[in-house]
Structures are given as structure tokens and as C-alpha cells.
């Protein structure tokens, strides 16, 4: 099953309409995105909870690491640079944090709230190599912007 981004975007907009609680929104997105595509084996958020620090937020899949400093891993790189990280081969990414040994590729997007405040990151991991495309980055980025821009 491959995601239909138009449908996913509409569904998320309908479910999250009027909601501004960050965790409620993250939980809803993690669930909706995770179940929309067979490539997505772990889907979840890390939240900025301190200076240069990410902590686990709502997710779907096996257990995730609880704490990730901005200096570590793909999630840390997305938070530090405020740019989406598309990683076709996690073994080739210096400092990748292997929460699950089955992960082969991943995409991590920064999540911004009002005024460009960094709320956290959205991390999607796949057991397939080179699973993510620039279209995934663009469409997921659009969903995040629409959901969190007012938060
Ligand atoms: N792969 C991530 C760590 C998070 S878990 O895989 C859920 C990283 O290197 O940032």
C-alpha cells in the first residue's frame, strides 16, 4: 500500500481541525501517517524539551530511544540544521542512532510552530533501503506546516 497524500492531507486536516494541543496533534499524525503506507515501519515525533535536547513523543511501531541530543543521529541533525534529512542508507550516515536494527532508511523533518519556533521533529523509519523520495519530503512538510503553523 502506497500513501495517497491528497487523501492523507484531507483526513488529517479534518481530524485536527481546531486542535492546538501539540501532543494531541502529534498522536493523531503519528497514527494517520504510520498506517497510510507499508514503507513506514516506525513513525513518530521527538519534542524539543530543553536546550539542544529532544525527547520521545507520540509514535507508532517498536520502542524508540527516549532522549536524543541535537548533536546525535538523524533526528539531531534535522533539529540542529532545521532542514529535512533524507537518508537512503542509515549505515552510511555518521552518528546514526540505531533504535531498531531492522531500519535501513529514514526521513526526518523539522516541525515548526508559530513564528518558526522549533517544536520537534517527525521521524519515519523504513526497513526498506532508499524508501523515501523528495515527494515524501514535500508532502509531509506541507502536512506539518498546515497542522502546526498556528501552534
Ligand atoms: N534513527 C534515529 C533515532 C530514532 S529511532 O530510530 C526511533 C536517528 O538516528 O536520529
Structure report:
32% of the residues lie in helices and 26% in strands. The chain has a 6-stranded antiparallel β-sheet, with helices on both faces. It starts with a helix and ends with a helix. With 151 residues, it is of the alpha+beta class. Helix 1 (5-16) packs parallel to helix 4 (134-148). Residues 42, 64-65, 68, 73-75, 96-97, 99, 103, 106, 123, 125 line the site of methionine sulfoxide. Residues 42, 64-65, 68, 73-75, 96-97, 99, 103, 106, 123, 125 line the site of methionine sulfoxide (SME).
- Order of helical and strand elements: HHEEEHEEEH
The molecules bound to the chains, other than polymers, are:
methionine sulfoxide
Arithmetic mean pLDDT: 97
Main sheet: strands, sense, barrel: 6 strands, antiparallel
Helix count from the secondary structure assignment: 4
SSE-based structural type: alpha+beta
Q: What is the general shape? A: globular
Keywords:
151 residues; alpha+beta; 6-stranded antiparallel beta sheet; 4 helices; binds methionine sulfoxide
Please outline what is shown here.
This protein is α+β, with helices and mostly antiparallel strands and 151 residues long.
What's the SSE blueprint?
Blueprint: H1 5-16, H2 22-34, E1 42-50, E2 53-60, E3 67-69, H3 73-81, E4 85-87, E5 105-112, E6 118-126, H4 134-148
Antiparallel strand pairs: 1-2, 1-6, 2-3, 4-5, 5-6
Bound molecules: methionine sulfoxide.
Residues 42, 64-65, 68, 73-75, 96-97, 99, 103, 106, 123, 125 line the site of methionine sulfoxide.
Amino acid at each position: 500500500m502506497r500513501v495517497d497524500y491528497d487523501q492523507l492531507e484531507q483526513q488529517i486536516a479534518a481530524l485536527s481541525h481546531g486542535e492546538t494541543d501539540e501532543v494531541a496533534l502529534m498522536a493523531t499524525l503519528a497514527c494517520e501517517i504510520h498506517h497510510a503506507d507499508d514503507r513506514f515501519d516506525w513513525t513518530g515525533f521527538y519534542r524539543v524539551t530543553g536546550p539542544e535536547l529532544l525527547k520521545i513523543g507520540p509514535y507508532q511501531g517498536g520502542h524508540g530511544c527516549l532522549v536524543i541530543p541535537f548533536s546525535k543521529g538523524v533526528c539531531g541533525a534535522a533539529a540542529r540544521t532545521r532542514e529535512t534529512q533524507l537518508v537512503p542508507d542509515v549505515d552510511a550516515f555518521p552518528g546514526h542512532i540505531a533504535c531498531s536494527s531492522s531500519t535501513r532508511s529514514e526521513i526526518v523533518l523539522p516541525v515548526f510552530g508559530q513564528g518558526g519556533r522549533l517544536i520537534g521533529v517527525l521521524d519515519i523509519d523504513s526497513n526498506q533501503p532508499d524508501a523515501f523520495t523528495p515527494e515524501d519530503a514535500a508532502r509531509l512538510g506541507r502536512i506539518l506546516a498546515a497542522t502546526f503553523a498556528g501552534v
